[in-house]
Amino acid sequence: MGQPEEPVPHPHRALGRLALGLRDTRHTAHLTYTQLAANAPGFSQPTLQRAASGKTVPTREAVTAYARACDADPGPLLERWEAAARERAAGSLRKPPPAVRQIQDEAATGAALERRTVPAPAPSGSPRNTLHQILSRQRFPSSKNQLRALLSALGVPVAGHEDWLRAWSRVNRRLQADRRAARSRKTNSNGASTATGCPRPTHQASVAPSPPPDPGPPETSTPPRAHGSPASAAPARSPHAPSPDQAARPPTPRAQRPRLTCDGTSG
């Protein structure tokens, strides 16, 4: 029968079920791939091997030729092929989850559990919504007992529970350390804001009192002009009036009174 084939990467998904169906059909017919290719004109041995590898979705024609070369009805295999084609179109094929011994965080735990065959009943002591949240990576198993119940319901042999429990312990330690670090950061932040203790300054503009108005130079009154006197007549010069030379000089500034500010001090 030739060399044994590699295991199917995703046996629980539509593509994996198609690959397993093709392999079972060939094993039932007791054919090697060389004999299968001889019974399927137009399809080489490597093409038929790839069709049953579970790594790529084969063509519809390849699946039909594969079934007929085994003298089998292609109908059931074509139904699996249609499911695999829809799965590929939806982009639901994802990277394989890490091995159980390589699990380090919540996401990896949920991805590895999700790859298991989901049972119809929920595990004992675990509500169905809790099971869904764990498998969809929305929450992490709260205890080892809950994980054991989940593994038993998923069909994981008891001999394989120990690796899962070690993975749970690794992830749980990391989660607890992250929570302690978050609490420490929050405490330090609150302590820093309390240590300052200063009231928040209020930005109110202080209104300064307005200074008293400047009285300005004293007003001089002009004597009324006598009725009938000509407008162009110059007034008689007083003997005490300053000479023209003295009038041309700039006047000496007069000392002004000190003004009081609002607080009583002289300005």
Protein architecture, described:
This protein is mostly helical and about 270 residues long. Among the domains are: about 15-90, 434 Repressor (Amino-terminal Domain), CATH 1.10.260; about 100-170. It is about 45% helix and about 0% strand. It has helices spanning about 15-30, 35-40, 45-50, 60-70, 75-90, 105-115, 130-135, 145-155, 160-195, 245-250. The protein is elongated and about 130 Å long.
Lay out the secondary structure.
Elements: H1 14-29, H2 33-39, H3 45-51, H4 60-69, H5 74-89, H6 106-114, H7 128-135, H8 144-153, H9 161-196, H10 244-248
Helix pairs in contact: 1-5, 2-3, 2-4, 4-5, 8-9
Q: Quote the CATH topology of the domain at 14-89.
A: 434 Repressor (Amino-terminal Domain)
> Could you estimate the helical fraction of the residues in percent?
40-55%
Radius of gyration: 50 Å
Q: From the 3D coordinates, which CATH architecture of the domain at 14-89 would you assign? A: Orthogonal Bundle
Mean of pLDDT: 74
Based on Cα principal axes, name the global outline.
Answer: elongated
Total helices: the number is 10
